[in-house]
Amino acid sequence: MYDPRLNLLALSYRILYTVAGGYVTASLSPHSPMRNVVVVGILGFIAGTAGAIAAINVADLGPKWYPIALALTAFPQPP
Fold first, then answer.
1. How far apart are CA 50 and CA 44, in angstroms?
2. How many structural domains compose the chain?
């Protein structure tokens, strides 16, 4: 996928899924919901970073900024 508009569209709905996932994680947590959201966010960041490293090392998968942006937006930001 080389069209920047399609990459931005995919990034935008993945950010919405990240926020929704943080909300669901916090609402299902019986104790310390923010701690659980932080743990899930860190796991998402680690997985996103591993995916970005793998995607950057392979040629012709698309723009290099997209997997980096996925890794950076894996952790839900507080309002």
1. 10
2. 1
Q: The whole model's pTM is what?
A: 0.82
Tell me if 61 is assigned to some domain.
Answer: yes
21-70: pLDDT as tens digits: 889 999 999 899 999 999 999 999 999 999 999 998 887 888 989 999 99
Domain annotation covers residue 79 = no
C-alpha angle with apex 49: 23 to 35, nearest 5 degrees?
A: 35
Distances (CA, A) of 31 to 14, 18, 36, 42, 77: 27, 21, 9, 18, 20
